[in-house]
Amino acid sequence: MRAAAAVAVVLLGIGSAAHGGELDQLRKENAELRARVQELESENVRLRGGSGGLAAALEQRATAAVAVAPGEAPGSTTITTEASQLEGIGGGKSRHWITWRAERAPGQAGRPDSAAIVIRSGPRASI
Fold it and tell me: Distance from the CA of 26 to the CA of which of 9, 53, 78, 101 falls in 20 to 30 A?
């Protein structure tokens, strides 16, 4: 009986040593994951920042795509976006182009009087 008890104690000792190694490994992995999360959070803050980043690039692109020119009526203004080629569901380019045009009355600031979305087929120059 004493031999069985001794064997049980030895097995428990080996088992706890094995679990101790697993516990150390899990602690190491946890520390590595926490460090990676910290890196990703820092990168996220950097990308969301007001200086540079995606928001600034989109704003710059949008500003470059809008043209303001004198309208047909004296003192009026025409606002037009750069023509964009439409794409199909599968990603294929179509022969259709879309642009947005608006007219602002003479001396008016703010919102235009009217706006239209224009879709044309054919070469881009025809818009």
Answer: 9
Range of the domain at 70: 65-126
pLDDT, tens only, 2-24: 666 555 555 555 555 557 788 88
53 and 69 assigned to the same domain: no
Q: Residue 104 class from Cβ within 10 Å (0-12 exposed, 13-18 middle, 19+ buried)?
A: buried
Give, for 66, the enclosing helix (H) or strand (E): strand 66-70
Is the same domain home to 75 and 120? Answer: yes
Residues 16 and 70 in one domain: no
pTM check: above 0.70: no
46 and 5 in a common domain: yes
User: For residue range 78-120, what is the model confidence (pLDDT) as tens digits?
Assistant: 888 888 877 767 766 777 888 888 888 887 777 777 788 888 8
Domain count, the chain: 2
The residues facing 54 across adjacent strands are none
